[in-house]
Amino acid sequence: MKNIINLFICLFLFGTLSAQQQGNVSSEDGPLPGATVILKGTDTGTITDFDGNFTIAADSGDVLVISFVGFNSQEVTVSGQDQINIALVSNADLEEVVVTGYGTQKRKDVTGSIASISASQIVSRPIGSVEEAMQGMMPGINLAQRASSPGELSTVSIRGLGSITAGTQPLWVVDGFPTDQRNAQAINPADIQSVDVLKDASSTAIYGSRGANGVIIITTKTGKPGESTLNLTVTNGSASAPKSARQTVLNSQEYVQFHKERNGGTIPAFISDNWDGVTDTDWQDLIFRNGQFQNYALSASGGNEKTTYLISGNYLDQEGIVIGETQKKYSARAKVNYKASDRVTIGINIAPNFTTLGRNSPGTDDSDWASLYAQSLMLAPILPIRRANGTFAMNSDLPGSLPVGNPMETMGNWDFDQSIFTLLAGMHVDYEIIEGLNFKSSFSANIGTNKSETYYLPTVGQTVPIALSPVSSYSTGQNQSLSWLNENTINYKKALGDHSFDVLGGYTLQNNVFESVSANTSELKVPGVRNVDIGNPDNRSGSNSKTESSLISYLGRVNYAFKEKYLLTATVRTDGSSVFGEDDRFQTFGSAALGWRFSEESFFQGLNLLNNGKLRASYGTTGSNAIPPFASRSTFGTVQHAFGGSAVFGTSLGNPGNRGLTWETSTQLDIGLDLDLFDNRLNLVFDYFNNETTSLLLTKSIVPSSGYSSFLTNIGSMRNKGVEIALNTELINTEDWGWTLGGNITTNDQEILDLGGDDEIQNFFGALRRVVGGELQQIRGPKIIKIARVGDDQTGQPLQTPGAYIYEDVDGDGAISNFLGADGQLVGDTNVDIIYGINTNVRYKNWELSALLNGQSGAWVYDFFQIQLAAPFRQTNLSKEFWYDGRYIDEANPGNGVTPAAGGFDTASGPVSSAGSVKTDYMRIRNLTLNYYVPSTFSDKLGLSSARIYSSVENLHTFTNFVGGNPEARRASGGGPALIGGSQIGSVTDGRELGLNSPPGLPMPRTWTLGINLNF
Amino acid sequence: MKINRYNLIDLLKQDFFKSQIIMLCCSVLLISTSSCSVDFIEVAPEDRIDTGAFFSNSDELVFAVNGVYASQRGIYGGLNFYNLQETRSDNVKNNGADQKERVETDTFEETTGNLLLVDAWVKNYILINNANTVLARAPSIPFDNSVEEGLINRSIGETKFIRAMAYFTLVTMYGEVPLRLDPTTDFNNANLPRSSIADVYAAIVSDLNAAISSLPDSYTGGAFNEVGRVTKFAAQTLLAKVQLQKGNKAEASSTLQNVIGKYSLLANYADIHAAGNDNSAESVFEITFNPSNQTGLGLNNLFIPSSEASRLGISAGGFAGILPCAPTIDVTNMYEVGDLRAAASYSSWDNNGNMETYISKFIDLAAAGSGSNINLVVLRYADVLLMKAEADGENAASYELINQVRRRAFGQDSGTLDSAIDISAASPGTFSEKLMLERRREFVFEGHRWMDLIRLPDSEALTIINAHMVAEYSGVLYGGGVPNVDAHSLIYPIPQTEIDVANGVVTQNPGY
Hints:
The structure holds two protein chains of two kinds. By secondary structure, chain A is mostly beta strands.
């Protein structure tokens, strides 16, 4: 306690009366108003006026500390000068400030692993949201674009997926508000000041029970005193699906040839009876278009000593590459900080956003085989768009074919609209109790509504296409989420000689309420009217839900540095969450980290090549509470029944519940090295991480005769470990020329350590499995060794005709089982083992060219589409690459040894086999941007402080062996034909599986834009 | 590390930073805020029924019993169960182009992992767990008057009937099964070994006797008294069926005597399954399907080829090209001229120039997206009459019972002797053959045939089954050697998941 008293006494020391000293503070750009001038060792100080001038009482020998946000502080000793002129130098990289959650820290003092990107790396890209700016830019962060229609969310993971059933999404924190990805996506990218990604336990422990998957902190820009700006950005462009990114399918000639071979050399009747010999329809050309991209952003910011503000507005209009897909986003932000007194600052931040999405086929991005893209891939090229009688042709016109609908018909029959409103608003009060001791309290709210409407009117008299309903339908739904947050933190910063402390304590409350209501009907009596009353009264239904969760947290953190060399961070957070069983709601998480800035040691001082060197190590625990509210409670569901004509209400057991349900816990070790060399022209960040998640939330199987199949409980563990390396170099930096080159790579070795005693958990009927010792998900099936040839020795094998698959007979029984049997083996696993990004920037005078590449390696996916859906026996169109090119034709044309003969694909083992397990490695030229900075001599004449013209292309090209579309796409199937080849009941409903790509994913759009950025 | 309640101070003292600074900061914060923290995270659901608070009155009990009835819909209205009870028999064939697992149960080649078997097992045990929950909670429900007390007693009877029916299904399909009579609450100790067939039957009989003593003869209609709930006579009919299956013919006969005369045969055979003809004079117990509250029957449309469905104008069609269930040749040959049951049971359709047959017994021409308004009659009076004849054995009275059923089938009054239709001891064949043939004709496609076959001595059943296999599948599914079916196939394998999860506690049937 004595220490504290001493400490307080120090704080209250005041200087004595002194002489007046005048001075001026400037920066490269001129006078610097609002800079702080403090007499060192006291809290006596002043602020520079509009011209950068100040007057302060100081005696000779006193030291003045001059500081300003974004600049290095300077100290000047008073020695009788008339006027002290100080030119502040902008922060170098080393002084970069990192947002750490409930506070900030200088990059050099950080002991954890935090990756950041700043506004300049976002602003010229033709992107709809922040996620797209992150891919490839930071080590350890994988953003997989599962769906590429405008407005779809990416799947984001940090240092691998650390959970099986609980969420794997990182926590998104927007201006201090812990929220979700949808809210992050809603932010106008031009408003973003920085994105900081907290990766190791030392950094994330402050977010306790929500930190296990990492934390992404997005901080928006703030007005600066004395610096009024008005910024206008206009970007226009166009998105398309280049042929190289599409899935090449057969033309009519190839289609006929293939089926002729498959039919033993004669053209089968379904073709000869139905093809006029001429028709050759390119269905993809009919659905793809050039989608317009328009983005307008206007922002104004500025302020004075008392008040700073930022006001911005943004309109984004993005058309998808498929007809009917649209996104329109309207957003605004008002951010005001007001210094009510020397010690009290209050601020508000209000950011509304309204987004509309449009689609005109079911689930293009979700899980549907009736999407326009799926239809365009599967429709036979020999079909005309319309039949002779004017109606739309479809695959059922060819007897025996899968009844794939016509996209030109579907797009006219299906309409889906969604509108999403989000409002993130908060206010805060900062009270500086004494110098260095700040109390901050904030109250914020996140309000969101999401309305969607689907209208479907099938063509009368058509065969019912696959995955579409025979009857018309209308559904409408709306949900509302209301989340509020109260945070109270107290922060004390103090330097005492060689010791400096930064201590944080806090108490937070958060509550989320989610309500939804939906109504739907079918068999619409009056087409065109969008009202549930229009449907058949027997087929109307409505439903609603309401869930609520609360979180209470106590948090604390100490940052301690000795001689700015030895760094310590210790963090603790106790969370109580309503979502868990009443027996286990509270848990405490904590971490500790050490840093050693060895470059500050005397033995390195002589070495000029080393500007900064730091070793870091951290260890700690975080948690995950990402389970639905009320999952721990046993409930009854409702059922309908009737006796004769009398409908009755019924109930039946629903969720089994589990009173003991509790947190998943991640324990992570991180060891890192930061090096800045050669005058800061080479920066290296290296991290090793080992993250083990225990008490995994898993559904444990229970004997079916119990009346349940499984219950949710905490068992099992898994681990992700790997290294991250980020290297940035400044190779040339002269007045005319500049060249930077950077790259990052992350490896991840994933292993399931325990599944609560089970060896494996089967998904997707056992074609996908989670196996102890394996990656999060594995693909299982018989393994194809080769394509049978004439004269092959097939001893011990079921006899295969030339051109057919030969499988490995694992158990040597002379027969090949399906994937469930003894010959099923691991044929692919799903973890992304390596992700990487490369970026470079070349500047010549006013021109600047930048490029970004990113890629991944090591993940496999079971491509249900190629092997089950658009497979030879369905008579749909086929992938040219997968089935046609390089196929075995005869001994004279044996093909590539991988692709079977047209008739060589067996439906017993083939559909779930290594043939369908495909690699998703790719490297993508993600972005190329050319900037032209208009010379100031010219922009001045227009009254502009600066102007920039730029052109950019996103997703220029993807190098991959993955056949068709987007290698990051993962989808489950939500309807249509069942799995062929073994276990075959029903369709897949277990969500987007890591290892499954069912309906094909759209190609990534290539977007060209031209933009202009004006600063007034 | 877990802490009790919100005592962070203790936590910090014990386990974390001894730093007094952070303690000071925290305690300042905690002074005003900590008192309500436990309440803050106590959030009760508002949009769902919490199990703990449920069963507070007799109405809620009735709702839960309605839910048990509804579980039957999921079992009997599903194609999987139909395949196991009817397609496996010699009445129905699978055209081989269907999903492999459905073909396998038809051709006696199912593996222990067959998902049809899992489905039937799981759905029956979900029903049983719901029934067990009702029966565990019912006795402690408070009541204010005799009406409520009566509802509680009746609910127990109804639930016991349905539980008995589920166990009867399980014991005839799988043989020895785990006998669970209490709800599952301890998920960590849920494994239970199989009970002997005798013990399972004892539980079924006990449930049915309890049901008989607490169920009414009939219902008045109206809320909570809907016609269509289980009656005493239904419980007696099921008990007789159980007794007959066990071979206790004398017991079955005397049980059935209670039901004789309580129902009557409909004049027109086709009306039994006509859309909207609910709870007719012939129906003893049926499972209601009702499109008006989204509980229509969907199974029947799967029997109809999609082209035929559109020809008939049924908007909810079946599978395109694949018929999972179609009449066997044997069935189409078993009716005498003039037997109206043939036309009421199957029809022909044009399959690209070939005339083929399909099951048309359950067609609702008005069926739409929400399914058909057809109830599945599980127990009906014709069954009572034929069971009585079977229980009593060959005598004139038994022939009269059979002839009542036959006369109606030929469109005649069931009570009027008709020498052109009636059969007698003089008719060709044994009594058992004649009786079984009549049962087959009467109940074709209604899910009785497999149970009728396994009630026969094994050798007789296997003779019929093997003849059916050769007749239907030789040269179709198999080149020459149609596999021979032996006695182990008369009961199904225990689903592999039950055995795997139970970790040795549950054993497999012989031969699998």
